[in-house]
Amino acid sequence: MLVSVIIGLLNEEKYLPRLIKDLENQTYPKKKIEIIFIDGMSSDNSWNILEKFKASSNEFNNILLLKNPKKILSAGMNIGIKNASGDCFLKVDCHSHISKNFIEENVKTILSGEQVCGGPRPSIIENEDSFSKTLLLVEENIFGSGIANYRKQSDDNKIKYVSSVFQGMYKREVFEKVGLLDELVGRVEDNEIHYRIRKNAYKIAYNNSILSYQYTRPNLKGMLKQKYSNGDWIGKVSHVYPKCFSIFHFVPLLFVLAIIASLLLSYFSSIFLVILFSIYFLFIILVSSLAIIKNEFSMTNLLLPFLIFAVHLSYGLGTLLGLIKGFSWKKYYLKNKKIDYI
């Protein structure tokens, strides 16, 4: 089975060499792997790295280097799918580290009769300093960011079916029937395409043997910016695809709304605000304590409750403002909506 590995990127000179090494180390036969890089008009050394890789490697079935003038990941993925020769398409994030048998395990799952599959994707860090490790605890904590079922690996090796996967493999027929990614939905393109996949009666298989990792944002500013943007797109896209998301996506929004309501009620009495923050911080202190106990302690771990609070606030504010902007964005979306097919 020929597999087309599709990788979108923009200014990724830092991550590309690692990912290329991962691809070279795959246990699946190289002559059955087509690699398609879609560059979103990078201004760093990314394109030169890709050209050198293509010129120096003759192991793979094919290596395609394509440009993505729109820059966004969904547009890049669509360019990759349209140019792919494979029987299956495998989406790989440039910020990820894939295990040696990653492609092989995906193929095994597809050959067992599945049309879409994926596996666990725990988070990892680039640097070993104590603050980076604390940010990893925030990312992996179920009360912080780690809600999705693909974030953690379990001991259960049975196939189960989920609503979404991070780096999915898709049989060609899936996109022929469902259509390509919606390029208007921003950062939640995976949620939207997986919703359409499920709506068309396909199941998304989760196999614990398909293992990859994603690097967390290296600093708090980057993490908060990411969470705000995620919330913003969830808020906007929920106006047109409300079934893309679960109730867990809106928990930070409920927290922000509770703060706003308490602030308004504090005009009459501050007791509501005091009760809200007392219950909230008692809970995240408990959750943070459990996370700290399970990991190596450092002084920066004491910041964990406040970092989780910052993540919730950023995500919730993004969702709230996205919901507000969504009324006008929906008109733009309905006017410009277009789903292409291969």
Number of strands: 11
Tally the helices: what do you get? 11
* Beta-strand residue percentage: 5-15%
- Please give the alpha-carbon distance between the first and last residues: 19 Å
Structural class call reads: alpha/beta
- Report the mean per-residue pLDDT as an integer: 91
Give Rg in angstroms: 21 Å
- Going across the biggest sheet, name each strand in turn: 3-2-1-4-9-6-10-8
The helix content is 40-55%
Main sheet: strands, sense, barrel: 8 strands, mixed
The arrangement of helices and strands along the chain is EHEHEHEEHEEHEEHHEEHHHH
Shape descriptor reads globular
Low-confidence stretches: none
Please provide a written account of the structure:
There is one protein chain. The protein is an alpha/beta fold. Helices cover 46% and strands 13% of the residues. It contains eleven helices and eleven strands. The two termini are 19 Å apart. The model has no long low-confidence stretch (mean pLDDT 91).
Question: Summarize this, please?
Answer:
This protein is α/β, with parallel strands linked by helices.
Secondary structure elements and pairings:
Layout: E1 3-9, H1 16-24, E2 33-39, H2 46-56, E3 62-67, H3 73-83, E4 88-91, E5 96-98, H4 102-111, E6 116-118, E7 123-124, H5 130-140, E8 160-162, E9 169-171, H6 172-178, H7 189-199, E10 204-206, E11 212-215, H8 220-237, H9 251-265, H10 271-293, H11 304-336
Parallel strand pairs: 1-2, 1-4, 2-3, 6-10, 7-11
Antiparallel strand pairs: 4-9, 5-11, 6-9, 8-10
